[in-house]
Amino acid sequence: MIDFNEMLMFARVVECGGFLAASKKFGIPKSTLSRKISNLEQRLNVRLIQRSTRKIMITDIGREYYQYCLQMISSAEEAESIIINKSDKPTGKIRLTCSNVLMDLDFSAILAKFMLRYPRVSLHVKIFNRDVDIIAEGYDLSLKIVTNEAKSSNLIMRSIFPLPSAFMISPSAIDRYPLLNKPDDLSKVPTVAWLSSHIPAGWTFRQADREVKITHDPRLACDDIRLIKAALVRGVGVGCLPLKLAARELAQGSLKTIFDDWALETHKIVAIYPTRQGLLPSVRALIDFIIDEFNDEKNKSSEIK
């Protein structure tokens, strides 16, 4: 007889990359995990996991079996979600991770509004400036800013909102660098750069059929974009920012755009989540809500103009 608990525990161990990690994450004794998987292997008469003192190795047949286990878990989660959310009111806990730059884009207010809209949903949010393995680390959803939408074989990436960027400089820096007329001139001035695992180093400028790639050794490099913006405003150097993030400074005149006849690659806010079927209604509702909020703000800005 099939023991679905054995399949579940096997999948958890594979997801976490080991018995100890799975034990800590899911609160299941390591001995129980080991016993269940041994029973599973004996029943199937195959070796699914090769064990050593420090790590595990998944056999080829184990990897194939793991995919079927994921389908089983996904179907079970979807069935439970249908029952729990029969009233079409999302409920339950969402484990969410996002990059800290989103907090500077009023993302915290969007999350608060979502929780008021859906009082039966709870959010557990962690803010990181690093790549997150959402499956291994136990997150339902990751939100971050990228410059491309390269697909992962294990994850879905859904575009939420574009963030056009521009090169910026302060009025005081303009006085010091009057010959800054084209991207190639950047080699003559100090630069500041927003560093992130999701944002490539350097800049690519496009104009008609021309493309200019700029590499540089920044005077200031940081993964916190607030410091980059402050340095730009004070004239430490020149650099690139999403227009939405610098809207106030551009309106007040403390920053100005340059190289306006050149196009920079657009940053994007994206949602990343596992590819398994049966995305929880609460997670889907959150993604849709965030998209609606950003688009509402865009429409309001267009009306003001």
TrEMBL record:
**HTH lysR-type domain segment(s):** 2-59
Which InterPro entries does the entry link to? LysR-type_TF_proteobact-type, LysR_HTH_N, LysR_subst-bd, WH-like_DNA-bd_sf, WH_DNA-bd_sf
- Does GTP-binding appear among the keywords? no
Q: Which UniProt keywords apply?
A: DNA-binding, Transcription, Transcription regulation
SUPFAM superfamilies, A to Z: Periplasmic binding protein-like II, Winged helix' DNA-binding domain
Similarity section: Belongs to the LysR transcriptional regulatory family.
Q: What is this protein called?
A: LysR family transcriptional regulator
Organism encoding this protein? Serratia entomophila
